[in-house]
Amino acid sequence: MKLWGKLSKATLALMLTGAMVACSGNNGNAPASEGSGNKPAEKVELTMLTHYVGVNETQLKPLIEQWNSENPDIQIKPIGVDFGELQKTIMTKQSAGQGADIMHVYALWGGQLNKNNVLAEAPDHIAEDVKANYPEAAVKGASLDGKVFGYPTEVQAYGLFYNKRLLKEAGFDNPPATWDEMLSMAKAIEKKDSSGKVQVQGFGFQRGYAGLVDQPFMAMMAAAGSNLLSDDLTKSNLNTDAGKKTLELYSKVYGKDGMTDISFNATKGFGTGQVAMTIGAGWWAGSLKTVMKDSYTDVGVAPIPSLDGSSKGTIAYTWAWGVNSKSKNQEAAWKFLQWMNSTVVKDDLTPEGSFLLEAFNTASSRKSDLESPKLKEHLGSDPIIKNFSDALTYASEEQSPATAAEVQDILFKNIESMWTGQQSLDDTINNAHTQIEEKLK
């Protein structure tokens, strides 16, 4: 495996299930009906379900309007729901025969979507385009059982965020390359008041929900040389050397033998300049820029430290556009998605590449977008975005068994139990490994 789901952004292992209404030239309340979709109707309206709401929806709107203006016979009707409701919406609407024609899906849901036959397999020309123009992690993220189901969009890798000012004040000119360096630097940077309360945390993991804990864990485990699960998604790798060493590292940060206070909020603390190092996904840089304002210049990003300091590893989660297997207008849907993701429209960027850059300050992973002068200039002037873009060349995909959410919940609960002193490191390794394998059966 080379990876196994996040975030989307930023985001997360919390997910519900769902999809929306699809229609064909009516009021938008008719379901997408069964059919091969070989011939689009003379005039069709395709529903497109996304988690883009608010500002993101506004930024997507001009691209949809451009398509609709240029293609009067194929009209796109976007439907936005909050991320937390998207999976629930997809599954409940699909069960009712009311699924949207086009869906924006998180790859971690792939196993469940595949089990319920929600997504159509991409036509050969689309599959060939994806395989030829996206990094391996993105291709795998947009595939089910080895078959491409759509176009990768938000492909986000994980890296080490660090505060350059805090490192320099402690005498460090560069971020750590190994886990041992990371821990020793963290101890040197950490500051406490006279009562022992942490004022500056050297290193902290973000906490709060499964995705926020598990995805950095999987990125660290990838840096140690292994994925969380076997390549065929039938076994846990937590009892391997890489799995044991990653859990051991986690036990050294928080918990009975931990070096710092688990109650110190690493997410908030990094934004206020009180945490020197943490692990996060590329999208977080945009949030930090908003929160930190002028202090954002203190932020640096480096590859995930590894055991030996020379090998590289991380995970990347993927979002992708796909087409409903029950849509009777599949040909029209693929025509739109091909335009959205492969046609150069403005500034030598695809519509999707332009949207990702403008909406999220994120680089598209498509080769043609990465070759555009505008994106090249942007990457050259923003080392943080470039670091995450470069990481996609060696990242593993987030694995997505049918029970992905349950597997991540198991890992999350066992790590939290270890961190809060409810079980030992050995028990955490054994319990998490056994419970995950049982869930994969």
TrEMBL record:
PANTHER family: MALTOSE-BINDING PERIPLASMIC PROTEIN, MALTOSE_MALTODEXTRIN-BINDING PERIPLASMIC PROTEIN. This is ABC transporter substrate-binding protein. InterPro entries: SBP (IPR006059). Belongs to the bacterial solute-binding protein 1 family. It comes from the Bacteria. It comes from Paenibacillus mendelii. Keywords: Signal, Transport. Residues 1-22 form the signal peptide. Coiled coil: none annotated. PROSITE patterns: PROKAR_LIPOPROTEIN.
